[in-house]
Amino acid sequence: MRLRLTPLNIFSSILLVSMTYLLLFPDENGWRFLGLVPLAGLLLVSLISDLLFRRLIVDLKRIWLFELLFLIFVAVLIVLIKTQFS
């Protein structure tokens, strides 16, 4: 199986690095452990959606296009939900 780098792979690696940072360098109150929960959820969603995109789309250029559009959609959705509830 070929190794194909995709935007969701890059995003997943950034999430893993940030989760490791939160585990290795906690603050005095321990609130950073609470930040691991949404990051772990995002990691799970990004890994599952990456596998789904890889199975459904064969061409690497289309995978990049659909995954970038997916990341933009999720970012806009997060901003809309955040502004709606604050």
UniProtKB/TrEMBL annotation:
UniProt KW keywords: Membrane, Transmembrane, Transmembrane helix
Source organism, top-level taxon: Bacteria
TM segment ranges: 7-25, 31-53, 65-85
Name assigned to this protein: Uncharacterized protein
